[in-house]
Amino acid sequence: MRSLIDILDLSKEEIDDLIGTACDIMDHPEKYSEICKGKKLATLFYEPSTRTRLSFEAAMYELGGNCLGFSEANSSSAAKGESVSDTAIIVSNYADIIAMRHPKEGAPLVASMKASVPIINAGDGGHNHPTQTLTDLLTIYKECGTFDNLTVGLCGDLKFGRTVHSLIAALSRYTNVKFILISPDELKVPDYVKDQYLDPKNIEYMETEDLESVIPELDILYMTRVQRERFFNEADYIRLKNRYILTPQKLVTAKKTMKILHPLPRVNEISVSVDSDPRAVYFRQTLYGKFIRMALILKLLEVQ
């Protein structure tokens, strides 16, 4: 039995295999429509979610399985003080696989040590969000055709953005990837990300506060929102929340082939007038998320 807590739990080859399976599901959905018949996915979401929870549930239903779970801590026994460990043990009696989102870093890892079924980390605090990273990777593959030789701009909240940290870790395994890290000084990428994934491999990166000066270089622009729920100080959030707003005017100098990604939800960091730009792929990105989660469920249940 195997769980997925961190994107680096998967080898580069396993990620490539998952992407291959997801592409096959997209091309031949009928092959997979009953493959998880009789299996159950539990979604244990201690934090609000739209895309991640619903895409997991849609993924399981489209594989022929069923879903159960809760969408907020207050609707579970956590409201009575039940531990994550106890919940994991109990839900293992009812489901074949568990997807868990929790505000505390490490909670899904703790659950995986006690559960008797696979645990998928669906986001733990500001730490990891491996299935969003798999979604990002499938999006890049489908839209760009490769992971190699790309200049990737990551913009916004690079300090608390768990999707950013996981994506850097994953893309650092590919050839000649360059990162441009765009953020205010207060929201820079943590040193541990650079120390673990960039510096040991001599991966080229630069840090800047100016999006418009670097946008012509980018093959990928990965926008993120400034996350109110990660701030301890409301004044800091208000000061920084509108620092980067992507508009059609700022895209004038960007490559025609550049792709704009966003893990969503969007607040106002991408103007709605950008949605019709052919470079905007963030809504397709949510659809890719369903297919890569289907592939992951099959892998962890060992039915594919």
Description:
- This protein is α/β, with parallel strands linked by helices and 304 residues long.
- It is 36% helix and 14% strand.
- The chain is built from ten helices and nine strands.
- The protein has helices at residues 12-27, 51-62, 84-92, 107-114, 130-144, 162-171, 191-198, 211-214, 234-240, 282-301, and strands spanning 40-45, 66-70, 97-102, 119-124, 151-155, 178-182, 205-208, 220-223, 259-261.
- A five-stranded parallel sheet has the order 7-6-5-8-9, covered by helices on one side.
- α5 packs across α10.
- The model has no long low-confidence stretch (mean pLDDT 91).
Helix content: 25-40%
Q: How many β-strand runs?
A: 9
Biggest sheet character: 5 strands, parallel
Shape: globular
Summarize the topology.
Blueprint: H1 12-27, E1 40-45, H2 51-62, E2 66-70, H3 84-92, E3 97-102, H4 107-114, E4 119-124, H5 130-144, E5 151-155, H6 162-171, E6 178-182, H7 191-198, E7 205-208, H8 211-214, E8 220-223, H9 234-240, E9 259-261, H10 282-301
Parallel strand pairs: 1-2, 1-3, 3-4, 5-6, 5-8, 6-7, 8-9
Helix pairs in contact: 1-10, 2-10, 3-4, 5-6, 5-10
